[in-house]
């Protein structure tokens, strides 16, 4: 009887302690605050849009102020903005990407009043069709999406 009471008391204390600890965004060490979840939901929307190969849905997540220098500061030839992204992305998703599967693991999230940055590791598998031939490609890397708040929505301004 004593052992049973101790066991029940320990279980009750353990359950109580679980309620005290902050909840985390799935597969991360980032606290699931309302502000963090707002940004994380946009990252998830990006992932789903890519998997569904839905360029229109993806472009709805992107700010018209989007700009990326393709991680090269010494070469402006590979820089692109919203229009170039829209021009290039839709045909690739529609014509070349036959299947897309992406897994994300959030590693860092910083949310400010007007700007947020989400860093994550991703593993992506693509069935790509080029020149009439289909082939699977796999990528595992780290990425960072930068968001700005526009009309109370988080929009991507860098990182695609």
Summary tags:
single chain, 160 residues, alpha+beta, Nuclear Transport Factor 2, Chain: A, four-stranded antiparallel β-sheet, two-stranded antiparallel ribbon, 36% helix
Task: Outline the secondary-structure elements.
Blueprint: H1 2-20, H2 34-51, H3 55-59, E1 67-68, E2 80-81, H4 82-96, E3 97-111, E4 115-130, E5 133-150, E6 153-158
What does this structure look like?
- With about 160 residues, the protein is α+β, with helices and mostly antiparallel strands.
- The chain has one domain: Nuclear Transport Factor 2, Chain: A, CATH 3.10.450.
- Helices cover about 35% and strands about 35% of the residues.
- It is built from four helices and six strands, in the order H-H-H-E-E-H-E-E-E-E.
- The strands form two sheets. The protein has a four-stranded antiparallel sheet.
- Strand 3 and strand 4 form a beta hairpin.
- The longest helix is centred in the first third of the chain and has 19 residues.
- It is globular.
- The mean pLDDT is about 85.
Structure described in brief:
The chain is of the alpha+beta class and 160 residues long. The chain has helices at 2-20, 34-51, 55-59, 82-96, and strands at 67-68, 80-81, 97-111, 115-130, 133-150, 153-158.
Tally of helical segments: 4
Helix content percent band: 25-40%
- Assigned CATH architecture: Roll
The whole-angstrom Rg is 21 Å
Helix and strand run? HHHEEHEEEE
Which regions have little confidence, pLDDT < 50, spanning 5+ residues?
none
Instruction: Tell how many strands the DSSP assignment holds.
Output: 6
């Amino acid at each position: 009887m004593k052992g049973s009471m101790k066991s029940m008391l320990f279980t009750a204390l353990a359950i109580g302690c679980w309620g005290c600890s902050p909840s985390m965004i799935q597969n991360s060490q980032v606290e699931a605050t309302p502000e963090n979840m707002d940004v994380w939901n946009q990252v998830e929307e990006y992932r789903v849009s890519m998997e569904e190969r839905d360029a229109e849905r993806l472009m709805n997540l992107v700010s018209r102020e989007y700009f990326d220098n393709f991680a090269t500061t010494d070469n402006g030839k590979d820089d692109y903005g919203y229009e170039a992204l829209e021009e290039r992305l839709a045909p690739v998703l529609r014509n070349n990407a036959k299947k897309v599967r992406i897994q994300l693991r959030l590693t860092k999230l910083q949310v400010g009043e007007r700007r947020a940055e989400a860093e994550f590791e991703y593993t992506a598998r693509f069935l790509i069709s080029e020149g009439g031939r289909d082939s699977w490609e796999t990528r595992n890397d780290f990425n960072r999406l930068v968001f700005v708040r526009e009309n109370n929505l988080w929009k991507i301004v860098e990182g695609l």
